[in-house]
């Protein structure tokens, strides 16, 4: 009788517990469909009710386990026929019912905790999104100004890099021309050192040109003086 009474209480409690979990999930889904900012009605009361019912069911399961243990001790005690099939069948039936109720309770509790944890995570994500949306309108202008300033800095950096590249190319070109001039000068010096006779010949030619110039100038001067003397005589 105690076992059946506890089983009836557990059955009613488990039905109510399952309805609580279903209503909790449905209310959460309805909240998401209606509005992301509407607070959940009786959310904290449902959580408290869940904790209370879970404790009550665990206590009933503990009592039923104790009754089943007492029945098992009675069947194993002296004076009880060990081959009473009806008695063993009754005991096994109560054990199966206890196992089913325990399994159902843990399954429903796990589902409820999973739903609550998921909703808590989604709620924090929704809060972050709402806070971002509320602050994005104020920060849009500031962000746009920062982006423009960043673009200006990038353009300035690009112009500076182009100027530096042009300067480096000019420097390399001038260095190359300087090297070519030095090479030509060194080649000329090499030729002059290799052919000293040519150098002396050029000097002689220059001396002869100067001498011829002096002789021609002297003749022209003498002729001019003679013509002047003849004209004034």
Automatic annotation (TrEMBL):
Keyword list, A-Z: Golgi apparatus, Membrane, Protein transport, Receptor, Transmembrane, Transmembrane helix, Transport
Organism: Cuculus canorus (Common cuckoo)
Main location: Golgi
Location of the region described as Disordered in the Swiss-Prot/TrEMBL record: 24-45
Top-level taxon in the UniProt lineage: Eukaryota
GO BP term, example: protein transport
Molecular function GO labels: SNAP receptor activity
Protein name: Golgi SNAP receptor complex member 1
Pfam families: V-SNARE_C (PF12352)
InterPro entries in alphabetical order: Golgi_SNAP_su1
Transmembrane segments: 214-232
Membrane topology: Single-pass type IV membrane protein
Protein family membership: Belongs to the GOSR1 family.
Gene Ontology, cellular component aspect: cis-Golgi network; Golgi medial cisterna; Golgi membrane; SNARE complex
Places the protein is found: Golgi apparatus membrane
Function: Involved in transport from the ER to the Golgi apparatus as well as in intra-Golgi transport. It belongs to a super-family of proteins called t-SNAREs or soluble NSF (N-ethylmaleimide-sensitive factor) attachment protein receptor. May play a protective role against hydrogen peroxide induced cytotoxicity under glutathione depleted conditions in neuronal cells by regulating the intracellular ROS levels via inhibition of p38 MAPK (MAPK11, MAPK12, MAPK13 and MAPK14). Participates in docking and fusion stage of ER to cis-Golgi transport.
